[in-house]
TrEMBL record:
<dbReference type="Pfam" id="PF08241">
    <property type="entry name" value="Methyltransf_11"/>
</dbReference>
<dbReference type="InterPro" id="IPR029063">
    <property type="entry name" value="SAM-dependent_MTases_sf"/>
</dbReference>
<dbReference type="InterPro" id="IPR013216">
    <property type="entry name" value="Methyltransf_11"/>
</dbReference>
<keyword id="KW-0808">Transferase</keyword>
<protein>
    <submittedName>
        <fullName>Class I SAM-dependent methyltransferase</fullName>
    </submittedName>
</protein>
<dbReference type="GO" id="GO:0008757">
    <property type="term" value="F:S-adenosylmethionine-dependent methyltransferase activity"/>
</dbReference>
<keyword id="KW-0489">Methyltransferase</keyword>
<feature type="domain" description="Methyltransferase type 11">
    <location>
        <begin position="63"/>
        <end position="151"/>
    </location>
</feature>
<dbReference type="GO" id="GO:0032259">
    <property type="term" value="P:methylation"/>
</dbReference>
Amino acid sequence: MKPTDRKSTSRQILTEEAYNGDALLSTRQRLYEDQYPAHDLPALASDAIKTACAGSARGQTIIDVGCGNGRYVERLRQDFPDATVIGADLSPAMVELVPEPSQVVDIQSLPFADNSAEALLAMHMLYHVPDIDQAIFELARVCTPEGIVIVSTMSSQDKRELTQLWSTALALYKGEPLPAAPVSQTGVSFLLEDAEAKLARQFDTVHRLDLRSEVPLREAGPILAHMASQRSFTDLDDAQFDAVLDIARMLVMGQIEERGRIVLRTHIGFVIGREPKPR
Ligand SMILES: C[S@@+](CC[C@H](N)C(=O)[O-])C[C@H]1O[C@@H](n2cnc3c(N)ncnc32)[C@H](O)[C@@H]1O
């Protein structure tokens, strides 16, 4: 299957279903409410920009590409009141949620001049992009020579308990052999393990910050809501998806009854690019 054929990179599915508003994104964000240790991702991004820009962002431009419902934009506007912080997203419904300046963009062809932003973010969004190398090229092109680009994504090991539960439910539905633990993320086109090498093609300095945590869950609701939020990205039709979700519900409730809780182990990270290669 070519990357452009994947549902997770389909412009129509992204803008009309998955991110036609922030209901599904907020559902996934809520899963982390009891995360330990808690990682304040917007604060970490803000600190990285402060360090890169030597504490001053006066008159600077910061662009959050794939800004979603604007949690990074909100924080950066607080922390850099003299900077112009632009929220940019493929989905018009998301852009509407973010106060101006905010605009519809496709990261593969950014409507910003060369060397025009001191900081650019692309957080948990590159796995939705058909041409990831082109997207990273665009981030580097718009970044000033002294600027910083921060991307975030998940590791192949992120929330593998959840992946295991869904894979088991799917195998039971299809009557196939059950997956052997541990199950890694599958079908994700931009994983933390690949991100440094991809950024290194466009930046002379690249470093990675790994963020791990645990999320103990005593209720099935948030886990099932998270699974349900991925409906648009699977190859199942609605009836099949509902059937697999019903099996997953039984598995999740069974584990919670037996063990008192399910602990999800998260593993995501930031990859930071500095010194964009001359072009
Ligand atoms: C998982 S959300 C992440 C939102 C936000 N960055 C965060 O971390 O909370 C992915 C976002 O990327 C946007 N997106 C997907 N493809 C894009 C593209 N080609 N250009 C710009 N934004 C895109 C989606 O519309 C969605 O809002």
